[in-house]
Structures are given as structure tokens and as C-alpha cells.
């Protein structure tokens, strides 16, 4: 079997296809969550914090120097605001996935099994036992 045939067998396995679909859907889901955080959640938080835009928050280590056009120096900064946005996005994604998994588990949960019917011979034996107990109690 040639290398191409082995690769085709590997690539067409169900797990590989499922993984590819999951990655594509995950990427799209990530864009939705990014939009949710950036355009819906963060503006009210910014309004509550006095108009602070977390994505623009940074600690400048070395400011940009554009005084010499031949030798421009870019700003060096730690952008902790972007990190805050990313953490919020992670929490939202984790919660959304938790809710999806919880819903799937609820759908896949087996129905509560009805109590098994008691076989006829057990019912008859139980009745005989009860009658014998009654007779023994009456003879005392």
C-alpha cells in the first residue's frame, strides 16, 4: 500500500473529519464570542467604569519615538487591557460550552427505568407466604 493510500485512509477516518468540523465551528464560535464581548459586554462595563476602554489599557515600557523619520522606534507596552478582554472571552466561552454539554448530557440521559414487573410465580409464592403467616398467627 502506497503512502498516498495510507494518508487517504488516515485523513478519511471519522475522528479526523469530526476534529476538522469541530475546529471550524470552534473558530466561528470564537468570533461570535469576541463580538459579544467587544461590542455588547464591554461597552456597558466601560460606561460603568467611567468610559474606560479595556482594550486600550496598557503599561508603556518605552514610548514611541517618531522624531527622526529615518529611524522610527515603535512603542513597547504591556497591553493588560487586551488580556482582560481575553480572560472575559474565555469565561464566556467556557460557560457557553458548559451549558451546551449540560444540555447534551440531559438529552442523552437514559429515561428512568420503570420497575420491572414481578414474575407471576413470585406473586403466587408471596401470597402463599402471607396466607401461611396469617394461619400461624391465628393458631397461636
UniProtKB/TrEMBL annotation:
Pfam families, per database record: MscL (PF01741)
InterPro entries in UniProt: Mechanosensitive_channel_CS, MS_channel, MSC/AndL, MscL_channel
Membrane-spanning segments: 77-101
UniProt cross-references to PROSITE patterns, sorted A to Z: MSCL
Main location: membrane
Any one GO MF annotation of this record: mechanosensitive monoatomic ion channel activity
Gene3D superfamilies listed in its UniProt record: Large-conductance mechanosensitive channel, MscL, domain 1 (1.10.1200.120)
GO CC term (a single one): plasma membrane
Location in the cell: Cell inner membrane; Cell membrane
Topological type in the membrane: Multi-pass membrane protein
Keywords for this protein: Cell inner membrane, Cell membrane, Ion channel, Ion transport, Membrane, Transmembrane, Transmembrane helix, Transport
Family of this protein: Belongs to the MscL family.
Summary of the function given for this chain in its UniProt record: Channel that opens in response to stretch forces in the membrane lipid bilayer. May participate in the regulation of osmotic pressure changes within the cell.
Subunit note: Homopentamer.
Protein name: Large-conductance mechanosensitive channel
UniProt organism field: Dyella tabacisoli
Amino acid at each position: 500500500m502506497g503512502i498516498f493510500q495510507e494518508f487517504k485512509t488516515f485523513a478519511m477516518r471519522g475522528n479526523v473529519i469530526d476534529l476538522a468540523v469541530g475546529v471550524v465551528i470552534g473558530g466561528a464560535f470564537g468570533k461570535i464570542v469576541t463580538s459579544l464581548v467587544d461590542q455588547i459586554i464591554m461597552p456597558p462595563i466601560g460606561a460603568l467604569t467611567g468610559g474606560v476602554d479595556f482594550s486600550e489599557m496598557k503599561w508603556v515600557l518605552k514610548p514611541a519615538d517618531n522624531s527622526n523619520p529615518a529611524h522610527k522606534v515603535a512603542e513597547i507596552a504591556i497591553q493588560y487591557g487586551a488580556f482582560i478582554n481575553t480572560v472575559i472571552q474565555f469565561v464566556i466561552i467556557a460557560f457557553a460550552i458548559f451549558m451546551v454539554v449540560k444540555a447534551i448530557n440531559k438529552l442523552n440521559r437514559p429515561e428512568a427505568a420503570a420497575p420491572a414487573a414481578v414474575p407471576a410465580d413470585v406473586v403466587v409464592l408471596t401470597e402463599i407466604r402471607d396466607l401461611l403467616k396469617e394461619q400461624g398467627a391465628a393458631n397461636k
